[in-house]
């Protein structure tokens, strides 16, 4: 995706109080009114009037090394993993066609557990000091926890039930996401078609500050990377994947985002440029294959059994998760 793509914008002339609701922007509620957090400077503004910019083409970023093919088709992806409840609600829009709601797009997400481990990669150490993967954090070791597909409804919305992600050096807390079109649900997963958008979803630091003080997160100790130092998020707010979050650690969070994609184009996350994308010098990141990591630096000390330095300084010499 080029900078010209990112700046190619469509405007919806939606006036009145219903504009925000039509776009799915900030219409969620938390389970305990008045007790939630709010990102500084992002309080509810009056509904946008005609001429307001309501939908942009979201830039793709790195896929990361831990995506696995064949993720289950399901809404609840927790598989018993313990953590603060989180509902992820994404609204997908067809940006080149007046930002119309995109029905039947397949949204795929995956992220680490409360201790920073990814399913299918139990030897990939998340940095800091942490118990072994799969111990007391929520059931047996699994290759599929915290991964899944959902298709969008008539309003372009896909929703997942999960937990707030843990942290892993050198990244700020994040969720990976891909939006696919043209494929089909088969064999319990989604296959075929094309990947139109590869993104990462982010949270303001204040949510992690609250979450990581609770069990089981607090059993993972060390210095986590803050959003401003993240190796993928470089600012840009919502169009770069910063989620709008409501709720609290006692009742759980709801995180929402509206994304604009071009369903006619393949966008696998290898592109560079634009806010939130990889620096131009970064190579595309692919999932490691057995034996392929021998003799080279690996993420979080994966397969080495030795935790990496508890510092974001390792970002320059490791793969980006």
TrEMBL record:
Show the segment(s) annotated as Disordered. 261-321
Q: Which terms in the Gene Ontology molecular function aspect does this entry carry?
A: dioxygenase activity
**Is the Plastid keyword given for this protein?**
no
Recorded hits in InterPro entries, A to Z, give:
Intradiol_dOase_core, TAT_signal
Q: Which keywords label this protein?
A: Dioxygenase, Oxidoreductase
Coiled-coil regions listed: none
**Is Cytoplasm given among the entry's keywords?**
no
PANTHER family from the xrefs? INTRADIOL RING-CLEAVAGE DIOXYGENASES DOMAIN-CONTAINING PROTEIN-RELATED, PTHR34315
**What's the protein name?**
Intradiol ring-cleavage dioxygenase
């Amino acid at each position: 995706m080029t900078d010209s793509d990112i700046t190619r914008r469509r405007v919806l002339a939606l006036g009145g109080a219903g504009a925000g609701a039509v776009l799915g922007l900030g219409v969620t509620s938390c389970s305990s009114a008045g007790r939630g957090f709010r990102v500084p400077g992002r309080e509810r503004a009056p509904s946008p009037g005609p001429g307001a910019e309501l939908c942009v083409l979201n830039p793709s970023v790195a896929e990361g090394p831990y995506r696995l093919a064949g993720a289950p088709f399901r809404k609840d992806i927790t598989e018993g993993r313990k953590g603060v409840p989180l509902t992820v609600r994404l609204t997908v829009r067809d940006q080149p066609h007046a930002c119309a709601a995109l029905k039947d797009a397949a949204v795929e997400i995956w992220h680490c557990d409360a201790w920073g481990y990814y399913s299918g990669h139990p030897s990939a150490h998340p940095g800091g000091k942490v118990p072994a993967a799969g111990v007391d954090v929520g059931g047996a070791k699994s290759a599929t926890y915290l991964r899944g597909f959902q298709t969008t409804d008539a309003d372009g919305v896909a929703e997942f039930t999960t937990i707030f992600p843990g942290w892993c050096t050198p990244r700020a807390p994040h969720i990976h996401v891909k939006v696919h079109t043209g494929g089909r649900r088969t064999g319990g997963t989604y296959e075929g078609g094309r990947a139109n958008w590869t993104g990462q979803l982010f949270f303001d630091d204040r949510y992690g500050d609250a979450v990581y003080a609770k069990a089981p997160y607090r059993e993972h100790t060390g210095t986590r990377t803050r959003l401003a130092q993240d190796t993928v998020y470089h600012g840009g707010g919502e169009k770069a994947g910063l989620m709008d979050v409501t709720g609290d650690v006692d009742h759980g969070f709801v995180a929402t985002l509206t994304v604009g994609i071009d369903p006619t184009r393949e966008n696998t996350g290898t592109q560079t440029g634009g806010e939130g994308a990889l620096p131009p010098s970064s190579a595309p990141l692919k999932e490691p294959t057995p034996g392929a990591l021998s003799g080279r630096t690996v993420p979080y000390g994966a397969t080495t059994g030795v935790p990496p330095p508890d510092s974001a300084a390792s970002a320059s010499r490791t793969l980006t998760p």
